């Protein structure tokens, strides 16, 4: 085959941003962008958000079925037992600068954790499951530790009497949550636990497709999640709401963004063409939490923004939009929003890593070469 024929084939197949290109066969998660449906292992996520705990959903995504009572008890015990950070990791984290970007700190801390994991070089499926449980249990602890250290406080010990979401809020804010706050945190974590081949999950699968380890996959994923076009959008949404400040300012602010050809963070999605089902659930909780615990103006402003963006652009809010005011009303600091997203998506990342390992083929796409050709090498002192 001539190089031009090969190039023509590649050009024909090319889709910018890999849009709608299938890159894995998966049993984990189904996203129906036309009918606004998100399904984890056969269960509608809206039902899971209403009825399940994060622990049940993690079990479901990893083991492929909802746990029975005995399995659930075993599993929650594992998660509780694995919460504490290794002493060396804690020592490393205490050296981070107080002003460190929390996503950079989390990425670095997870990298450090890999060196102190007793299963670090064990690639067996049992060891990979143990590491997935460890990562999921420890990321909330890590986020709590980072927050306490940078605000000059001693990290809190985890509370084995509290479930995953309640303990998480306790370690992060220093307050034991009320039931409604606990439930809000739980369902926020459930709704973001997986989303098929989003950019960070794809990054994780690419990394482990080289047979690199689970920690390397998760570190790649955290780096990918950090950007404002992906997980970083939730923080930007809340910054925007704070900047707008009053309900009466919303319309002119959003129209101003459009006039400057800027994007409204928390809107649009590569797959959903209409509503994002996660946003519909979070919208309700943004209102309830606002009324119960902080200020309902955030929800009211968000709803007004939604109206303008749909009317002007036909673009709908995604998961990050209403999640921003939910996390804010739970007392989570703005720059911890994206780390909190990571603490939920860790389950999806690791589920996909396990699936990739189970039937691995190196992920290695092609690029269409568009640069100069046939140049001749000139000695350095003859170059212009
Ligand atoms: N605000 C304003 N316009 C938007 C927009 C937004 N949030 N999202 C998409 N658009 C517009 C684009 O300007 C583009 O318009 P054009 O065709 O007139 O140029 C069109 O919609 C398609 O956008 P595109 O960037 O090609 O879509 P994509 O599938 O590549 O991008 C996102 C998807 C999520 C990256 C994009 O919607 C976005 O940037 N959203 C804001 C960031 C965000 O909330 N990210 C979290 C995702 S869960």
Helix content: 55-70%
Q: How would a textbook summarize the main sheet?
A: 3 strands, antiparallel
Shape: globular
Q: Which H/E pattern describes the elements?
A: HEEEHHHHHHHHHHHHHHHH
Percent range for β-strand residues: under 5%
Give the overall average pLDDT: 96
**Number of discrete helical segments:** 17
What is the terminal separation in angstroms? 37 Å
Give the strand line-up of the largest sheet.
Answer: 1-2-3
Would you report the number of β strands? 3
Unreliable stretches (pLDDT < 50, length at least 5) are none
* Structural Rg: 22 Å
Estimated structural class:
mainly alpha
Topology diagram in text:
Layout: H1 3-13, E1 29-32, E2 37-40, E3 43-44, H2 45-51, H3 54-63, H4 69-81, H5 87-94, H6 102-115, H7 125-150, H8 164-173, H9 179-191, H10 199-208, H11 214-225, H12 233-244, H13 250-259, H14 277-293, H15 297-313, H16 319-329, H17 337-358
Helix pairs in contact: 2-9, 4-7, 6-7, 6-11, 7-8, 7-17, 8-9, 9-14, 9-16, 9-17, 10-11, 10-17, 11-17, 12-16, 13-15, 14-15, 14-16
The chain binds coenzyme A.
